Amino acid sequence: MMSELEKIPKENPFRVPEGYFEELTGRIMQAASNKPRVKTVEKKLFRLRPWMAAAAGLAIITALSITFILVSPGKDQTDIYRDLSFNGTVEEIFSGMDLSAIEEEVAGIISTTGFIGVENSDIIEYLMMQNISILDIYEYF
Length: 141
Fold this sequence. Notes:
Layout: H1 2-7, H2 20-34, H3 41-71, H4 75-84, H5 90-94, H6 99-113, H7 120-129, H8 134-140
């Protein structure tokens, strides 16, 4: 292997023209100054990126707020629900109502469900003692 290295001449095989390195800096500066500077759109978008993210976040928050306002129940509906959840005694609930008509209606509902051997009036009396409203009975049956 040493014999092959000995065959290669010791002098540098590459030649540099005279004055090449002295003129190199001047040529590079001239080439750089001849090129027009172009502002790319990418750089502008990169600078606008935080503002675009903030605008998108604000748009999402606004959309969610509007959706929540449109979907949430209004005050009128809340008042209706409050009226339906009356927790009085049976006498207070049915005061001023025709109890015989209510008993007949509930008896009609109960008799269609097939309680054999139990009087309808007993069932209605039991339900009223348990503070079960007529609305609950209608929902169940």
